[in-house]
Structure formats: structure tokens, C-alpha cells
Specification:
Layout: H1 2-8, H2 32-48, E1 52-59, E2 62-73, E3 78-79, E4 86-89, H3 92-105, H4 131-135, H5 158-166, H6 182-195, H7 200-212, E5 218-219, E6 232-238, E7 244-253, E8 267-269, H8 271-282, H9 290-296, E9 316-317, E10 322-324, E11 331-336, E12 340-345, E13 350-356, H10 367-371
Length: 375
């Protein structure tokens, strides 16, 4: 599910040709910035064979740009519009991070407290893990999904998988390394359910989606009927054993996001909705204390004082956000399924959001180029 989508695709460059990635942006004629952005996006879509794309830019609480390109549904040649809904996969984690910090602001938890202070009947080896360590994927708790297939570890469903994962040994000592892990966010969901006094999806809706006016955002499976949803396309075919193999044929990809794991992944949204969310974050409508916003983007150190992360460009991990640490323009970089990304340039108070309908489109690899036009 989410691990395969991000880790497997994150540095992937697809080689098969695609000729229908034509721009349909809301361009202002004669605008040199707009023309330059269109030229860059058109070139990248052609090189990466991306059928359709949305772009939104937010700076200091205001939306600077909002563009649409290409084809949402290849079968019917339906163009991308601002209402086209894309799979954002693991970008759901940033809503989980905000929800936890909202509960902190309400005085209901401490993110450095052991999870056992909020959840009962956990295995002894899990009890000292903190909420911060769950959010940062450094807990060492075993994964409830298979690392190869991204399916639940039991064929008998959610309850059987939950019972099975609790009987497994720790993967490593807490804080010793980074390991992208669905169980971490399952536990985050249980905490939100309990302390928020409602199911976590309802908590998201009440305290984030409604606040931001995100009318097109839902939590679901790609099998569900979602109005205006663009299919996700891929050059990778999932075999009966759950493994993936590369093909030369573009096909629709279907992903299952179990309901109890949607704090981890399973969000479908638009670039406009995410831009609205960012504006509310920037203007303290989601989190009241700027210190909590800064803490959300602060990468968590391992026991040896270094940072854990996916490696390469993504060299740290904060509270639901992968992080890019470098000499200039650090980024809180939410990435979903190798097809969607929200880059927040913390020092610039600038967010660039790119959603695509190609698994392996990897917008995280070209958002830096787009950002140069908006700083």
C-alpha cells in the first residue's frame, strides 16, 4: 500500500512513451511567470509521461496560482479541471500530525508521553514508545502490512492482522533507526478515536476539512465511486502474489486502503483543497500556536543524534512529514504514492502542491524547479 507506493516509486523514471500530456492551464496571456511555469510543466509531463496534473501555489496565506493540465481520464478524454480528484495516498499523514497537535493544544495529550498512557492492552514491548516516535516512524513496532505486497499480514482481515502484529517481535530498539511503518499510524488513529471522542475520519472532517472548506476531499479506496475522481495510471502491474512487475502498457491501478489505516493513507483530494488547508495552517486556523506548527516540521533525531528518513533527497522525518534538510530552503515534503506532493518551504512560507494521475510521476523531483518562480 503506502510503503510500496512511496519507496518503490520515489526515484523511478518511467521510460515508456506517452503523447497526450497537453497543457490546459489557466494561463494569463503575456504573463512571463505563467508562461515559464507552463513550459516547465509541459516539458516535465512529456518527459515523465504524466497524463494529467494539478498545480496550486500558496504563499503567506494567499493562493498565488492554480493550474490544470492534461487528461484526467484517458478512456473518455476528460480533461483535468480544478474539481478533478486525485489519489494523494500518504499525504493523509499530515492531517494525522495536525490532529495530534490539535489534541495537544486541547490539553488532552503530550506527544512525548508513552502511547500506553492513552491506549490499553498493548504489548509490553510497545508501551514505552512515544507519540512523537510513532509519527516519525522510529518506533520499531512491527508492521501490520507486508513489506513486499503492502497487503495486511493476515488474509483474514483487519482484526486478525491486528492480533497477529501484536504477537510479533520488535523490528529494532525504539529510536535506533527509521522504518516506514503502517502500524505507527494505526496507533495514531486509535489515539485520535479515543481522545477526540469520535472516529478519526470524523475528527478530520470537523477540525480540518470543514475549517478549510475542503469540499472535494474524502477518505476511501480507489475502488469506491468518488465524484470527479481521476483514475491512477501505472506502468506496473500487480501480480496475483501481490508483487509488481514493470510493463510497457499503461493500465489503471487500484489500491485498497483499509478503513482503520486511513490515518496512514487513503486520501483523495484536489490541489485546490490542499491549498485551502495550507492557507488555514499558515493563518493559525488549524493550529493556534505557531510553536506547534514549527514542531510539526522539526525532524526527529535517532538515538545516535542523526536523522532518519527515506534517504537521498528525503533525509529526515518529522511529525507526519518527510523533511528535506539542506543549506538553503529546507522543505517539509508530504509525498503520496509517487504521484502527489505538497512541498512547504518553511523559511519562505511557501507551499507548492502538485497532484498527478501517474504512479511514478514523482512530482517531488521537479517541485524545486517550480518553486524558483514563486519565491
Amino acid at each position: 500500500m503506502t510503503r510500496l507506493s512511496i519507496v518503490f516509486f520515489v526515484h523511478l523514471l518511467l521510460l515508456a512513451s506517452f503523447s497526450n500530456a497537453l497543457p490546459a492551464g489557466n494561463v494569463t496571456p503575456g504573463n512571463p511567470v505563467g508562461d515559464s511555469v507552463d513550459a516547465l510543466v509541459t516539458r516535465v509531463m512529456s518527459e515523465r509521461h504524466i497524463p494529467g496534473l494539478q498545480l496550486a501555489v500558496v504563499k503567506q496565506g494567499k493562493m498565488l496560482d492554480n493550474r490544470c493540465y492534461g487528461i484526467a481520464n484517458l478512456g473518455d478524454s476528460i480533461p483535468v479541471t480544478k474539481n478533478t480528484v486525485f489519489s494523494a495516498n500518504s499525504i493523509a499523514k499530515i492531517l494525522s500530525g495536525v490532529a495530534i497537535l490539535q489534541l495537544k493544544e486541547a490539553g488532552k495529550l503530550s506527544i512525548d508521553a508513552p502511547v500506553s498512557g492513552y491506549l490499553d492492552s498493548l504489548p509490553d514491548s510497545w508501551k514505552k514508545v512515544t507519540i512523537r516516535q510513532l509519527l516519525a516512524n522510529v518506533s520499531g513496532i512491527p508492521d501490520i502490512t507486508d513489506s513486499i505486497t503492502d497487503r495486511l499480514i493476515s488474509d483474514n482481515g483487519e482484526y486478525a492482522s491486528w492480533q497477529k502484529v501484536q504477537a510479533l517481535p520488535m523490528e529494532f530498539q525504539t529510536g535506533e533507526q527509521f522504518s516506514y511503518n503502517t502500524t505507527n499510524y494505526l496507533l495514531i488513529g486509535k489515539i485520535i478515536d479515543k481522545l477526540g471522542d469520535m472516529p478519526f475520519v470524523e475528527f478530520f472532517h470537523r477540525h480540518q476539512l470543514a475549517t478549510a472548506g475542503m469540499k472535494h476531499t474524502v477518505f476511501a479506496n480507489s475502488y469506491n465511486i468518488i465524484p470527479h475522481k481521476a483514475p491512477t495510471y501505472s506502468y506496473f502491474h500487480q501480480c496475483a502474489n501481490g508483487r509488481y512487475r514493470k510493463t510497457d502498457k499503461l493500465e489503471e491501478a487500484y489500491e485498497e486502503f483499509p478503513g482503520f489505516l486511513r490515518t496512514d493513507a487513503g486520501m483523495f483530494t484536489t490541489a485546490t483543497d490542499l491549498a485551502l488547508w495550507v492557507t488555514k495552517l499558515q493563518t493559525e486556523k488549524l493550529l493556534r500556536d505557531k510553536k506547534n506548527i514549527a514542531e510539526m516540521w522539526m525532524p526527529v533525531k535517532l538515538n545516535n543524534g542523526t536523522y532518519g528518513g527515506f534517504g537521498g533527497l528525503l533525509n529526515g522525518y518529522a511529525l507526519g512529514w518527510p523533511v528535506i534538510l539542506r543549506e538553503k530552503h529546507n522543505v517539509a515534503a508530504a509525498i503520496g504514492g509517487g504521484r502527489a506532493a505538497l512541498f512547504y518551504y518553511t523559511a519562505d512560507d511557501l507551499a507548492i502542491i502538485v497532484l498527478t494521475n501517474l504512479a511514478g510521476g514523482n512530482p517531488e523531483l521537479f517541485i524545486d524547479d517550480l518553486a524558483t518562480y514563486y519565491r
